[in-house]
Fold this sequence. Notes:
Blueprint: E1 12-14, E2 17-22, E3 26-31, H1 42-47, E4 53-58, H2 72-86, E5 91-96, H3 98-109, E6 114-120, H4 140-148, H5 159-169, H6 172-187, E7 201-206, H7 214-223, E8 227-232, H8 239-242, H9 244-257
Parallel strand pairs: 3-4, 3-5, 5-6, 6-7, 7-8
Antiparallel strand pairs: 1-2, 2-4
Amino acid sequence: MYEQRGMRNKVSEVTDYIYVEKGEGQPIVILHGLMGGLSNFSGVMDYFPTHRYKVVIPELPIYDLPLKETNVNSFSEFLHDFLRHKGLKDVILLGNSLGGHISLVFSKNYPELVKGTVLTGSSGLYENSMGESYPKRENYDYIKTKSEEVFYDPAVATKEIVDEVFESVNDRNKLIKTLAIAKSAIRHNMAKDLPNMLTETCLIWGRNDKVTPPEVADEFNSLLPNSTLYWIDKCGHAPMMEHPLKFNEILHDWLNKKQL
């Protein structure tokens, strides 16, 4: 959900797309969260290209679309255009928070392009922060506290992360887009769709997630016909950031079991 800077891989910019790409083999396409970025998944990017996977992380146009198009469906269509641009199919989609929600919408609309989905702290059913109006957005300490609440270990919310969030919520255009996305995600509840979605799905959840609490993971697991739920202890909303080694171990084992 929140971005860590300093990713070592070169960012490619082609036409309207900004993305990182590494490795060859089965494509894993990663979708970041609402206030996240490409480098949230640096642990995944470092690990899976050495295990026959191509990892591709597009930067979502969170603040770049017209306001009326700033919604979950539009981001799903952006993903469709991006995959067509890259010539990718039979992809494994990995999404955190809003990125998980986009993965679900895309998988519903284009199941023929998706080989498997991986959801971690995904919205789509319920998320505590959705609709947040940031009433004290000019108060740095307030934003710092809100950022720390995303993680089990507040130290993960570095000054760099807090500064990024503070800048975003105090930029009027970004704040308006953020709230539009939040409202779109609330409206686009997936509960009725999930039982009809047959894609193999891996759920990796932090037991201490305050944003999408553990009962959300349980509900996803009960509604998705072909899902497997894994827990990471002492972990909040972004398992791939707080426990990258454990996250990679769980994901790799699941991929092997499903022969993906």
